[in-house]
Design brief:
- The protein has helices at about 45-50, 95-105, 110-120, 135-150, 165-185, 195-200, 220-225, 230-235, 270-275; strands spanning about 1-10, 20-30, 30-35, 60-65, 65, 80, 155-160, 185-190, 205-210, 210-215, 240-245, 250-255, 260, 280-285, 290, 300-310, 315-320, 325-330, 340-350, 355, 360-364.
- The chain is of the alpha+beta class.
- The strands form four sheets. The chain has a six-stranded mixed β-sheet with strand order 6-7-8-3-9-10, sandwiched between helices. Strands 13-12-11-14-20-21 form a six-stranded antiparallel β-sheet.
- The longest helix has 18 residues, at about 165-185.
Length: about 375
């Protein structure tokens, strides 16, 4: 039985703006679900409808098979962590974490026990007497998490909780939130625009664009099996390379080029039946090898001109152009080509994706 079900959910504001269209999703007990997408795609609006902070225009939201559309946030048994932390500045860490329990009528001994236990999980034991202004951003975020989990609810909602942290703190808090989720086992819905957070934290990811679900799947499914051009380009860092072109008698010809590229046996039938069709060829930067370093022949070879390189330690981002089309590769730092030189690269057939130019759907 699913813990949460959203069925044909829509959100339309009084001015007629439709923020969320026909949202359908089942979330199992204990899952860590991440809503990801660009700003304005409807992910936070959907989270707020789940929390009861936004009214659902149409459709049904069920918790354990019970329709809760008209229930208040408190009645839904949901705890939410906001981007702004929302700590009480005049209360200590201990008081911030204890406040919700006091409102529920817990006695002092029970509050003490639960605050101490939660603080130990979050590494906050030494900070219980401090005020929020005396804490770092990461420590304040841990207090916000602690205030949420101390209530022992079954559903946690997190709305871009790491966006105010620096890069190092974000990496640390990602792992901490994931570890906390595993310890408490509560169903968690997490909203972010950062696909790296989504890929590293989620059991399943919901990719959204313009208020619509584009794809739902595990990080591995979204990375290796995107259903359309948007998902393919959004998931992965650096993003997937795309080349517009046409299916020819024997393969693919990029726009502005006369060179025919073979696509491999997996696409033979499609090529034979769709000569002249406008398509987009895609491949990920990390799928690329320097042609001089491989003896493989089961792939595409591209003669490129290197314009810029970025040494990142474990790899180098190489910016290059093929027939006037800008591309990016991730190469071994020991095999980095020089800027303004020619570099032939190899892309295995199994790493090549095709998309329909008109519909932007993946061609399999």
């Amino acid at each position: 039985m699913s813990n949460l079900v959203l069925r044909n959910v829509n959100k339309v504001y009084p001015n007629g703006f439709a923020a969320v269209h026909d949202f359908n999703l089942e979330i199992k007990n204990g899952e860590f679900i991440v809503f990801v997408g660009p700003s304005g795609c409807g992910k936070s609006t959907t989270l707020r409808m789940i929390a009861g902070l936004e009214e659902i225009t149409s459709g049904d939201f069920l918790i354990e098979d019970k329709r809760v559309n008209d229930m208040s946030p408190r009645q839904r048994g949901i705890s939410m962590i906001f981007q702004s932390y929302a700590l009480y500045p005049n209360m200590s860490v201990y008081e911030n974490m204890a406040f919700g329990l006091q409102l529920k009528g817990y006695d002092g001994e029970a509050i003490e026990k639960r605050v101490r236990k939660t603080a130990k999980i979050l590494g906050l034991t030494d900070y219980l007497d401090r005020m929020p202004r005396e804490l770092s951003g990461g420590q304040r975020q841990r207090v916000a998490v602690g205030r949420a989990i101390i209530r022992k609810v079954d559903i946690f909602l997190m709305d871009e909780p790491l966006s105010n942290l620096d890069a190092k703190q974000r990496v640390t808090m990602r792992s901490e939130i994931t570890a906390i989720h595993r310890k408490i086992g509560a169903t968690t819905i997490y909203v972010t625009h950062d696909q790296t957070e989504a890929m590293t934290m989620a059991d399943r990811i919901v990719v959204m664009k313009d208020g619509r679900i584009q794809q739902v799947g595990t990080p591995k499914e979204l990375y290796f099996d995107p259903v359309n051009l948007f998902v393919a380009g959004f998931i992965g860092e650096p993003p997937m390379n795309f080349m517009k072109g046409t299916i020819s008698a024997g393969g693919f010809v990029a726009e502005g080029s006369s060179k025919e590229l073979k696509l491999g046996p997996a696409y033979d039938e499609f090529v034979n039946q769709n000569s002249g069709k406008k398509v987009i060829l895609g491949f990920r930067p990390e799928a690329v090898e320097r042609a001089s370093e491989t003896t493989r022949t089961d792939g595409i070879r591209l003669d490129t001109e290197v314009s810029l390189t970025e040494l990142l330690g474990d790899n180098t981002n190489v910016y290059a152009a093929y027939e006037g089309i800008d591309l990016i590769f991730k190469l071994d730092p020991h095999l980095t080509p020089e800027r303004h030189t020619k570099c032939e690269v190899f892309v295995p057939f199994e790493s090549v994706y095709l998309f329909d130019q008109e519909t932007e759907e993946r061609i399999k």
